Amino acid sequence: MDELAQRLRTEGFRLTKEREALLKLFHELHRIVTPAEMHEIAEEQGVSIGLTTVYRLFEALTKIGAAVPFLVEGTIYYAYCDPQHHHHVICMSCHRLTEVKGCPTYDGLPANWDVYGHRVDWFGMCPNCKDASQAH
Ligand SMILES: [Zn+2]
Ligand SMILES: [Zn+2]
Ligand SMILES: [Zn+2]
């Protein structure tokens, strides 16, 4: 967390006590959230912080590679992201996110390209939501 605080400072985002609490909540979510949803969760947990600060935190985290934005049905969501290379599988119903290690193949890429990286995310339905939808 100290190193993260240091890197956030280079983006001009200083971690106060409340902001650190917000960051901790975000880290522990394991789901994708909109800034408005994150703001609501923070309020429920007694962390009083402005919506603008949530936006600024997400922006700063994204810049330093500690958060990833996802465009889902026209809305931007964010998830906390560890620095090691990985992928995600995301439930379209409850927005829960699970990390996936291991990479897909590069089969099917056009010839003669130098490729430096890739981003792969899967969207679907988690076991909990599947059970719930099959229960009746
Ligand atoms: Zn991630
Ligand atoms: Zn789900
Ligand atoms: Zn990969």
Structure explained in plain terms:
The chain is α+β, with helices and mostly antiparallel strands and 136 residues long. It has five helices and five strands; from the N terminus they run ααααβββββα. Strands 4-3-5 form a three-stranded mixed sheet, with no helix packed on it. It has a two-stranded antiparallel sheet with strand order 1-2. The longest helix has 13 residues, at 17-29. The termini are far apart. The mean pLDDT is 93. The protein binds zinc ion (ZN) (3 copies). One zinc ion (ZN) binds at residues 91, 93-94, 96, 126, 128-129.
Quick overview of this protein structure:
The chain is 39% helix and 18% strand. It is α+β, with helices and mostly antiparallel strands and 136 residues long.
How are the SSEs ordered, and which strands pair?
Elements: H1 2-10, H2 17-29, H3 35-44, H4 51-63, E1 67-72, E2 75-80, E3 87-91, E4 97-100, E5 121-124, H5 127-134
Parallel strand pairs: 3-5
Antiparallel strand pairs: 1-2, 3-4
Helix pairs in contact: 3-4
Bound molecules: zinc ion (ZN) (3 copies).
Cofactor: Mn(2+); Fe(2+); Zn(2+)
GO molecular function: DNA-binding transcription factor activity; transcription cis-regulatory region binding; zinc ion binding
Binding site for Zn(2+): 91, 94, 126, 129
